[in-house]
Amino acid sequence: MRINEVRPSRRILLAAAATGLMLAMTGMSLAADKIRVGKAITSSFPFAGLELGKEQGIWASEGLDIEISAFQGDGRMQQGFAAGAVDFGVGSGPGMGYAAKGVPAHAVAALAMEPRNMSLVITNNSSVKSIDDLKGKRVGVTTAGALTDWLTRRLSQSKGWGADGIEVIPMGEMRTRLAAMRSGELAASVNSIEEGLALQERGEGKVLATFGEAVPDFHTHVIFASDVLIQKNPDLVRRFLRAWFKVAQFMKTKRAATTASVARTMQVSEKVTDDAYDEEIKMLSLDGTFSPKAVEVIRSSLKDLGILDTIPDASSLYVSDFVPMK
Question: How far apart are CA 152 and CA 168, in angstroms?
């Protein structure tokens, strides 16, 4: 075989090899960053935005592949941060206090404002007929130090009964609390509006009251990031927040798709999520900005809940470098 017959084949092989290398490098550069995201509870309309974002390709649009884990309250999720098992988390405003206790994570954005999505629910066999009947009664919440805990104590104080005028019982998820209400162990429970509406839809109970107007200056939910990412990979934090606020905008403008997705995640009917939609969307932040008034209320709540012995400096609770998001 002559040399001039070999060279074209060799050139083709070299070109193919170069093309393959370029494709491999491109594939590597396009690989999504895998991140672990925790949510304090499963039964939350705003938190269901995590799954909605996956369905709509919003996380992927920022080069993120999220792995979602649900916990039984803020305390458990913060333990996940302490163990290095969580990169980002969505939880309650009072959960910000764990940073002051040494948990290596801080709030980096406000997710939702006043607690329009929280309700006080009772079963049909409850002896409680009004808020006034709750004095001295046992009310179920998720975990000690969680938002449900604080709201119950705040209600008790607003009625002039003191912080302990209602006996707060931490019991984790709704299924456990519902069973305890049915047996008479609990008089009522603090739950999401969706859980209360679902009880009504099934004919098992009803919403006694909501907390939307009771606490006007508040961050019901915030977004947490591990301190390692805040310090060493701030660009990843920004990408996560950009994706989240794309999700928030989608939820704000695409009602039908949002209520359908949230219903699947929360395992309730679309009627329930549609009935709750207007209240949920009112409280959703679209840029993550922290409200100074809301932060002040949360600072006081941390001592009220016993999360901290003293009221902490605001600077120890959150990092504002990443918001507002455009």
Answer: 7
d(CA 225, CA 35): 11
**What is the topology classification, in CATH, of domain 118-210?**
D-Maltodextrin-Binding Protein; domain 2 (3.40.190)
pLDDT score, position 211:
86
221 DSSP β-pair partners: 92, 112
Distance of CA 188 to the CA centre of its chain: 23
Task: Report residue 65 as tokens.
Answer: 């592949």
Q: What is the pLDDT of residues 102-149, one digit of tens each?
A: 999 999 999 999 999 999 999 988 889 999 999 999 999 988 877 788
Q: Are 270 and 259 in contact (CB under 8 A)?
A: yes
Tell which CATH classification among 3.50.50.60, 3.40.50.720, 3.40.190.10, 3.40.470.10 matches the domain 33-114+218-316: 3.40.190.10
pLDDT for residue 10 is more than 90: no
